[in-house]
Amino acid sequence: MPPQCRRHVALQNTLSYATRPLWDTPEGPDVVLPHFWADGLSVSEHLCQLHGWQLRRTQPQLFDGVLFSTELDLLELRWNELDPVVDKFFLVESNSTFTGLPKPAEFLLHAQEPRFARFQHKLVHIVLPPPAPGTPPFDYEAEHRRAMTRLLNEHGAGQGTLVIMADVDEIPSAHSIRLLKGCEGWGRRMHLDLRNFLYSFEWQLRGGSWRAAVQEWGAGEWYGHSKRKGARASALADAGWHCSFCFRTIEEFVTKMKGYSHADRIGGDKSLLNPHRIQETVCTGKDPFNMLPEAYTWKDMLSLMDLEPSKSAVGLPKYLIENSERLYYLLPGGCVREKVER
User: What is the largest CA-CA distance in the chain?
Assistant: First the structure.
């Protein structure tokens, strides 16, 4: 893209994001429900009633479905967090990014490693072929979701089965899922209000991430990742963690920036993919695309432009703390990524 066109795209993006509070409103849930939990609690009649629900007489099957690209460590973290409450894991991947760039089918290459092999007995996994030339990224992403819907229907998702619909970097807490699995009366769909992080659990963003959901399956149901049109949506507060762009290597950042559905944010500016620039943004908490935050109030925009690093690793997944030596880069103070000289 010529420099003049890049400047035009950058100006257009800046104006759009800077004025968002004037012309746009968030599409999140209509209500966020209080969440009551403490260490050592089990799901009981009392706990269900505290949320306004009832204790189930029999617990339904619960499946977890993810669309996967390269985030092996986050997948490992997710499965270890959810293993005690999930009956089947479903994973859809491809040997292509959403934008059509070739890449390895990463999970297939690593599926027999001990960290993943122990889940094989309850795993359903497929690799999709690459998209036809010229397929728009969002269309190919939608094909992944249709494939997941077919897979769920073919492998036991029946009336009343609960399905976690969340990206691999959206990790519900096991106790939140255990609560929804053990209580009834919350409806057929509950969004999960997740604590929002960037690059690692060092940089927490203001506001939650709400698109992840638990859905009661039924005839005609599909695997989605948004609020259903025309439906009133509720979310359970503080139900897990969303760790966006939480990669071990610089190469993974480049793959993500070039290959996911919003890759147009690069706007032809290849300098955004410079390894040293990426490393600097990770250690300073700046936006990976050098853009203004996607915020709907001026207050949120200003807070997101100047993040403060967290010194706390309290309230994070237990498996992360237990494996901190190997997963150090996800913890406060671990911003330096592999294969980059500083």
Answer: 65
Beta bridge partners of 184: 54
State the pairing for strand pair 240-244/194-198: parallel
Contact 199, 280 (CB under 8 A): no
Q: For residue range 16-53, list pLDDT tens digits in order.
A: 656 766 656 677 899 999 999 999 999 999 999 999 99
- Whether the CB-CB separation of 187 and 255 falls below 8 Å is answered with no
Distance separating alpha carbons of residues 100 and 136, to the nearest angstrom: 9
Distance CA 172, CA 168 (A): 10
The pLDDT tens digits for 111-156 are 999 999 999 999 999 999 999 999 998 999 999 999 999 999 999 9
CA angle 307, 11, 18 (to 5 degrees): 45
pTM: predicted TM-score of the whole model, two decimal places:
0.89
CB atoms within 10 A of CB 20: 20
The amino acid at residue 323 is N
Residue appearing with tokens 């690069």: 266
Number of C-beta neighbours around residue 258 at 10 A: 16
Q: Is 130 exposed, middle or buried (0-12, 13-18, 19+ CB in 10 A)?
A: middle
